[in-house]
Amino acid sequence: MKKITLAMVLILAFGFTAISYSQPAGTPAKPGKRMMMMNRMHKMDIFKKLNLTDQQKDKIRDLRNDFQKKMIDLKANLQKSRLDLKDLRQQSKLNRSDVIAAVEKINKDRDAISLAVANHMLDIYEVLTPEQQKIWKDNAPKFNMMKRHFKMMNHGMMCR
Questions:
Q1: Domain that holds residue 60
Q2: Is the pTM of this model over 0.90?
C-alpha cells in the first residue's frame, strides 16, 4: 500500500513539475502559432502538387499581396471596434443601445474578415485549370479549418 501511495505522489509531483516548466510565468500564450506553421507547410505542399505555370504563380502572388493588405485593414478595424466596446464598458453608466451597436460592429468586422478569406480562396481557385482545381479541392485547407484558425487568432487578440 505504501508503494502505491509513494508511486502516486511521485507521479503527481513530476506531473506538476512538468506543467510548471512548460511555459515560463508571465509569458503570454501565442494561440494559433503552431497551426499557422502547419498551414504554411501544407500550402507549400499544395502548390508543389499543383505544378503552377509562371503566369499562375504571378497571379496568385498578386492575389496574396492584395489579400494581405486588405486583411491588415480589416484586422485593424476589428481591433478598433473592440477598443470602442472596451471604452463603452468602462463608462460609469452603460448605455444599452451603444453597447449593442458596438457588438454588432464587431460582428460585422468579423464577417468581413470571413468573407475576405472565402473570396481569396475562391480567387485562387479560379486561377487554376480544371485538373489543378481537383487537386486543390482534395488537398486545400478546408473552410472549417480556416474558421478555427481565425477563431483562435481572435481569441488570442481578446486575451492580450
A1: 30-159
A2: no
